Amino acid sequence: MHPRLPSAIWACAGGLGAVLSVFQRIGRLEISQYAPRWYAVFQGVARGGLGVFFGMFFVLVNRANLLLGTFMDNVYATLTFAALAGISERFIPEIIRKLENYATDHGPGTEPQGTQTT
Predict the structure, then answer these.
(1) Of 50, 91, 93, 107, which residue is least crowded by CB atoms under 10 Å?
(2) What are phi and psi of 108, to 5 degrees?
(3) 3-class DSSP state for residue 57?
(4) What CA–CA distance (Å, rounded) separates 103 from 108?
(5) What does the pLDDT look like over 22-47, one tens digit per residue?
(6) Domain range for residue 15?
């Protein structure tokens, strides 16, 4: 990592990306009126926490030269990509939902498409 920047900076970049992602779609977030308030707060904190995690994860993978190693010494590019990694908190629930739908549609007892039974 850049010697003058502590790890908290990279984590904050990921958290900022997650917060920007939530603000971008705040009008479309579905919150049940029957759910307790702590549940909505927990979801918000969890999304921010995921952003922090993904921001730090990107920097660690970058420093290990496994992903975008050419930007390893460029502080601004690393901060930008850490923030973009924080934005990815929105995609994880969508990927899980798609996998669940696929498993439901193609689970045990279902026939593959294109086969005929006689």
Answers:
(1) 107
(2) -60, 140
(3) helix
(4) 9
(5) 788 777 777 778 878 888 788 888 88
(6) 7-25+37-99
